[in-house]
Automatic annotation (TrEMBL):
GO CC terms of this entry: mitotic spindle; nucleus; spindle microtubule
UniProt-listed Pfam families: Kinesin (PF00225)
PROSITE patterns on file: KINESIN_MOTOR_1, KINESIN_MOTOR_2
Binding site for ATP: 100-107
Keyword vocabulary terms for this entry: ATP-binding, Coiled coil, Cytoplasm, Cytoskeleton, Microtubule, Motor protein, Nucleotide-binding, Phosphoprotein
Residues covered by the Kinesin motor domain: 4-464
Name listed for the protein in its UniProt record: Kinesin-like protein
Species of origin: Calcarius ornatus
Classification via Gene3D superfamilies: Kinesin motor domain (3.40.850.10)
Localization per Swiss-Prot or TrEMBL: Cytoplasm, Cytoskeleton, Spindle
GO molecular function: ATP binding; microtubule binding; plus-end-directed microtubule motor activity
């Protein structure tokens, strides 16, 4: 499916302070439902440049739809999110990201307030309303890596339930009884958890049970399970916003990393380092002592049963998110936050099978800003630099995508890997999902130049054509892994689940996910790979020498055979005719050469005669003078 990137514009209403400033309020004019016009105010750089003949003072921009200052949250959701949520429920991954200057209303559009919900909680409500009566309440199927599913054992399910309870208990609205229940619950299963943490290895995939990715009958009854994650990119580091941190003293947050699966799809996982004990201070002393690596280290996916639980997790993540006060915004986002919702579709059976996985991500980008207007310094200045740099790289990627759509131009490099943000966005711009951009602007004249830059960027983004691939085209098929993180069976698209229900064979040739190995294992693996590469090079050189020798011998034999064949072939009449013709041509050329030779001879004789005559003329004496001279001599 080919369709342009949908770009929606939302204009923020004036604040009370902006209205009291009595500044010009006519720089943004909405022409119709798709067009907006920007008029440069006198004090803006755009107006000064236009007076010098550089650029224009009036600009017109077109969007998929323009929402004015009077637009409510409900109206904006209805006008912008229907298509992408419908595609998400049908199995297509979706990305919604906001873009604009600081204090333009991006976070309000995404999250809203407790009384006026944004598009994220409204989307959750639509999803839960859609799966009402078909909600799979168990936690034994959990998202894994980028597009896979992990089947959890009973002990792991209990651990997931306890972890969820502990995270929700970090909110003050949750009663102390729930927290006490979580602590007692974990203590009662402490021996199982100890065995799990010390003996279970979250390693690479080797044998996978396939997901049933065939199209299901619309009349077939299915179930759905909803999982949520919440992370942020702060100063080009990825952090889990659902981590349990100590409130009594500051704790160092764990840095996560971005990895790739076999299909090149990115996912977020943790580093294999020891957890900080303070992160688990509210759960259990037993867990604090035994939890050295593992489940709590990676990006957390939490199962949610309702919109209310999703909103609680959103609130918990916001408590851990990086905010700061600047001159232009009292609650300025200093990081890019990504709230992801994964929908697992299951068969409605006694032992459910996973039919597919789809993911909907809401990215609240930090606003671009000019430091001379926000008056930031120190850490705030460093944050602003990283924010502007990541947004600049996003702009470069959009520009490169637009250029590569022109067949007459040479394809350019798309710098997805130059930023954590664009690396996570890459699959959505490469056909493995559907993206949607929301542009937020304010009408204040002091930010007109920044707003104009945002509008120009959005105009470029709207020209990008998305190529949305079918779910089974361009993807590595989804896979199901066991509770220990190891694959249960290799996937074959032509094999049904019933064909290998009793199979226990493993394949030694499966590729290992090296991102899960420790530092020592990585070094050892690197040395082994070096030896294999050297041996492979030696074998390839020997093979090349052998092939060259065989080719030379074969060519030499072919030349000898060709020469011998020409010698043995009798002259055909045509060859005789060609021979006679050559003889005639030879005689003709000889005659022409002889005639030219005679011409040269005559020319040389004439030249010699002329030279002799010139010499005679030089020494010629008239007869009278000769006789007179002779008489004198006598």
């Amino acid at each position: 499916v080919y369709e342009p990137l949908k770009v929606f514009l939302r204009v923020r209403p004036f604040s009370i302070a902006e209205l009291e400033s009595h500044e010009s309020q006519s720089c943004v004019t909405i022409e119709d439902a798709q067009t907006v016009i920007l008029n440069a105010p006198k004090e803006s750089s755009a107006m000064k440049n236009s007076e010098r003949g550089i650029g224009h003072a009036v600009h017109s921009f077109t969007f998929s739809q323009v929402f004015g200052p009077e637009t409510t949250q409900s109206e904006f959701f209805e006008g912008s999110m229907k298509d992408i949520i419908r595609a998400y429920i049908n199995g297509v991954n979706g990305l919604v990201f906001t873009y604009g200057v600081t204090n333009a209303g991006k976070t309000f559009t995404i999250q809203g307030t407790s009384k006026d919900l944004g598009i994220l909680p409204r989307s959750l409500d639509v999803i839960f309303n859609h799966i009402r009566g078909r909600h799979y309440l168990k936690m034994n199927f959990k998202p894994y890596l980028s597009n896979d599913v992990k089947k959890l054992e009973d002990e792991q399910v209990k651990q997931e339930e306890a972890l969820k309870t502990a995270i929700l208990a970090s909110l003050k609205e949750v009663s102390d009884q729930m927290l006490l229940k979580a602590i007692l619950y974990l203590h009662s299963y402490s021996h199982l958890l100890l065995y799990f943490l010390l003996n279970v290895s979250f390693c690479s995939e080797k044998n996978f049970v396939p997901l049933d990715i065939h199209k299901t009958n619309m009349q077939q009854r299915t179930q759905a399970s909803v999982w949520i994650s919440f992370c942020e990119i702060y100063n080009e580091y990825v952090y889990d916003l659902l981590s349990i941190l100590s409130t009594s003293k500051p704790q160092r947050r764990r840095v996560l990393r971005i990895c790739e699966d076999q299909g090149g799809n990115c996912y977020i996982k943790g580093n294999n380092t020891v957890l900080w004990p303070g992160q688990l201070h509210r759960i259990s002393l037993v867990i604090r002592n035994v939890c050295k690596r593992s489940l709590f280290a990676d990006l957390k996916w939490i199962n949610v049963q309702s919109t209310e639980e999703g909103c609680r997790l959103l609130k918990i993540g916001n408590k851990n998110r990086s905010f700061a006060c600047t001159r232009m915004n009292e609650q300025s986002s200093r990081s890019h936050s990504i709230f992801s919702i994964r929908l697992l579709r299951l068969t409605d059976e006694h032992q459910p099978r996973v039919l597919g996985v789809s993911e909907l991500s809401f990215c609240d980008l930090a606003g671009s800003e000019r430091c001379n207007k926000t008056h930031v310094f120190g850490d705030r200045l460093k944050e602003a630099g990283n924010i502007n740099n990541s947004l600049h790289i996003l702009g470069k990627c959009i520009a490169a995508l637009k250029q590569n759509q022109n067949p007459k131009m040479k394809p350019s490099y798309i710098p997805f890997r130059e930023s954590k943000l664009t690396r996570l966005f890459q699959p959505f711009f490469c056909g493995k999902g559907k993206a949607c951009m929301i542009v937020n602007i304010n009408q204040h004249t002091s930010t007109y130049d920044e707003t104009l830059h945002v509008m120009k960027f959005s105009a470029l983004a709207r020209q990008v054509i998305q190529t949305i691939l079918p779910k089974n085209f361009g993807y590595f098929p989804p896979k199901l892994v066991g509770g220990d993180g190891k694959p249960m069976m290799h996937f074959d698209a032509n094999t049904s689940v019933d064909d290998f229900a009793d199979s226990t064979e493993t394949s030694a040739e499966e590729e290992v996910d090296i991102t899960i190995l420790s530092h020592e294992d990585l070094l050892k693996a690197a040395e082994d790979l070096k030896e294999k590469v050297a041996a492979e090079r030696r074998s390839k050189l020997l093979l090349e020498v052998k092939i060259r020798k065989e080719m030379a011998e074969a060519m030499f034999r072919q030349l000898l055979e060709t020469e011998e064949a020409w010698r043995q072939v009798p002259l055909q009449p045509t060859l005789r005719l060609k021979g006679n013709r050559l003889e005639d041509m030879k005689d003709s050329y000889e005659e022409k050469l002889e005639s030219k030779f005679e011409m040269y001879k005559e020319a040389i004789k004439k030249h010699a005669y002329m030279c002799a005559m010139e010499q005679i003329e030089e020494h010629y004496v008239p007869i009278e003078e000769f006789l007179a001279e002779q008489e004198k001599v006598e």
